[in-house]
Write a structure and sequence with these properties.
The chain has one domain (about 5-90). The mean pLDDT is about 90. The radius of gyration is 22 Å and the shape is elongated. It starts with a helix and ends in a 7-residue tail after the last helix. It contains three helices and no strands. Helix content is about 80%, strand content about 0%. With about 100 residues, the chain is mainly alpha-helical.
Length: about 100
């Protein structure tokens, strides 16, 4: 197998892994979304409920921010795999590897 095929195999594997990561992130977002309608005064009322719901909403915003950053992080992983594999191919061929 040549370096071109090895590079594409590594990139394909990284893309597949990142697809599974995104599916998990989507499932987390969907599960959290199902809980949101239950967080109303009709479900639970009082100061403890208000405090807990406030904490939940803050947590949920943080999670949404992280999940929203997943596509960029996934693309960075795939790009890094490609550049690392290309650097290995150049090194193997005796060509200079840019830093």
């Amino acid at each position: 197998m040549g370096w071109g095929a090895l590079i594409e195999e590594a990139v394909s594997a990284a893309e597949s892994d990142m697809s599974r990561v995104q599916a998990a992130a989507d499932a987390i977002d969907k599960a959290i979304g199902k809980a949101r309608p239950l967080l109303t005064s009709g479900t639970w009322d009082g100061p403890a409920a208000t405090s807990w719901i406030g904490d939940w909403n803050g947590f949920y915003k943080s999670v949404q921010s992280l999940l929203g950053g997943m596509p960029g992080a996934e693309a960075a992983v795939v790009s890094k795999v490609r550049s690392d594999m290309e650097a290995q191919a150049r090194k193997h061929a005796g060509q200079p590897v840019p830093s």
